[in-house]
Amino acid sequence: MSLQEPGIMTQPATLPETGEKKVTPILRVQHLNVHAGSNHILKDVNLEIPRNRITVLLGPSGCGKTTLLKCMNKLTDLYRELNVSGNIFIENDNILHTTTNIPGIRQKMGLLSQRPYPLPVSIYKNVAYGLKLKGVRDKRLIGFSVEKHLREVGLWEEVKNRLNAPATSLSIGQQQRLCLARGLAVKPSIILADEPTSALDPISSKIIEDLFKDMKKHYTIILVTHVLRQAMRLADHVIFMYDGEIIEQGSPEELFNNPQTDKLRAYLVDGN
Amino acid sequence: MRRIKILEEKFFILLSGFMAYSLIAVLAFIILVIFVKGFNALSFDMILKIPKGGYYYGGEGGVLNAIAGSVYIAFGATLIAIAIGMPAALYINVQLVRYKRTQNTIRYFLDALWGIPSIVYGAFGFALMLFFGMNASLLAGIITVALLISPIMVRTFDEVLSTIPKGLHEASLALGSTRTETAFRVMFKQGFSGFITAILLSFGRGIGDAASVLFTAGYTDNIPVNLDEPAATLPLAIFFQLGSPIPEVRERAFASAVILTAIILAISLGARYLSKRYSRTNLK
Ligand SMILES: Nc1ncnc2c1ncn2[C@@H]1O[C@H](COP(=O)(O)OP(=O)(O)O)[C@@H](O)[C@H]1O
Ligand SMILES: [Mg+2]
Fold first, then answer.
1. Domain locations in chain A?
2. Does ipTM surpass 0.95 in this model?
3. Most informative mutation of A58, A67, A112 for ligand 1 (most atoms within 8 A of CB)
4. Which of A61, B183, B205, B257 lies 20 to 30 A from A162 at CA?
């Protein structure tokens, strides 16, 4: 069974191995501001996310990383106190200002949160859920797709004999991979991962990290982390945030070996 | 200093243990007294027969009329309250998720409604009944009890839903579900076992309430076969029999109380069993 995912890449991208060679950004954020009352959470954020790369959002906790991710898939809609302005383009759609087909916009992105939130149904139905939302009714097609995505996250061999067991019977690490498979089943082009390994043991964390390295062939990954070493292991592109502002962005070599600002220098030394 | 701490700890453990067990003891005592007092009158006739002529003077028969009436009323009222409570609770938790203040206002009013004594619902139901030119009937009883238990139902559903992690809500939306799909496919599923408990507890509240059916359901020795016929209820059967000067009839009042208590205990046990069973797939 191959992991090839036809139809995901809308245009050929240079392979990640060639490093920072310019590729058209898949996602652009312009002048993004988020206020909660008098609290200015995100301050004029401008950034570009390169296609088929792992972009790491780095910064101390409370600096607005989660809020930035939530703007990207419009989960900020759930919080009335958050006032969002600016532009976010995915390909060429300005998603921040559309009110139509929000589910469609969200399906361009798969979300992996700090701790896994499997749906309260079986392992199988978790992965099948997104397909059902998309109106796929063909049982065989669903079964085929469930297997494919469980293989994609390396979970198939572990769960193939208990697909009808509750998803919550899996270990936390397995649940996180299940959530990833569930997200992949709706065929996103971007993966938003918000500190996806922070609740996991080292072995499960490593599995997720390795998956991300493989997955960037087919997906663009935006990884939030405050673990410096994880950022160093995975990043193709780094965005350093501090107190709601983007302080530096660029290649890992530039940022980690030659930080331009005191804030980043201090963060690299003591992680804060 | 250490010794005092240890003593203090021991004292409070003893005290709280004592309180917990005495509560259970009181419950057991109530059940025991009712059972002992009603024991002589307990028979299959009590639950299988309706009152024959002269039943209230110690003649033959049973309280099947009241059992049936109570079950019909509680069942009908529960169905109506579910139909009101489920959409209302989902609306509060899913559609109003951004409007904390509206949510809290609604919850405040529901709590207030929960606290209104059932005799007030009874009086309101009575007024409503007269307004529509209805007689005391099964339907009027069902509507009044539905009004009584609806706030309970909405608030317990609401409690269940509000304990669902926000992350699950977000995960569902992030997959591209609409709000309605999130409400019915994810939140409903996660809350299901809690809903069963809420439904059975509301049913228990409805079947045991006397004041709300006092003026609205009427009383009859027959089992109602139509919504516009009056219906007897167990709480009122207990009330009438207990007021009798004849000792055998008073015994039957206690036997009726045993029946009512047994129904409510069975419902609680059922609630526990079912909610365990259906929480298997739940996210903890
Ligand atoms: N819904 C909200 N209402 C008010 N303040 C919020 C809300 N969400 C986040 N914040 C504030 O925004 C800041 C950034 O939070 P967050 O994005 O979660 O940071 P991070 O993910 O980097 O730890 C915090 O100070 C937090 O208190
Ligand atoms: Mg965060």
1. 118-187
2. no
3. A67
4. B183
